[in-house]
Amino acid sequence: MIQLTRLNNTRLAVNCDLIKYVEQAPDTVITLLNGEKLVVRETTAEVIERVCEFRRSVLSVVAPSHSPLVEEQPESEISPNASASDSEGPSRG
Length: 93
Fold this sequence. Notes:
- The chain is an alpha+beta fold.
- The protein has one helix at residues 44-62; strands at residues 2-5, 11-14, 19-24, 28-32, 37-40.
- It has a domain at 2-62.
- It contains one helix and five strands; from the N terminus they run E-E-E-E-E-H.
- Strands 3-4-5 form a three-stranded antiparallel sheet, covered by helices on one side.
- The longest helix is centred in the middle third of the chain and has 19 residues, at 44-62.
- The termini are far apart.
């Protein structure tokens, strides 16, 4: 969720997954997927930046950059001519 400010200076938290689009006309109007419209003090660029920051924070918890999701096999262990049948062991024929 991102925190924004209504025109009357009250704070609100918006689930950014529900944002359909954001427009500047001249106030910033956020249209949600359900059709509800919110008018906020922040500019369109500020809303977009807050959404990006929120998504970055979620992704950094799910997949930290210092620990890969998939453990990579060193290239020295991969034979460039290896086929799927080579990895099945000796043939029985």
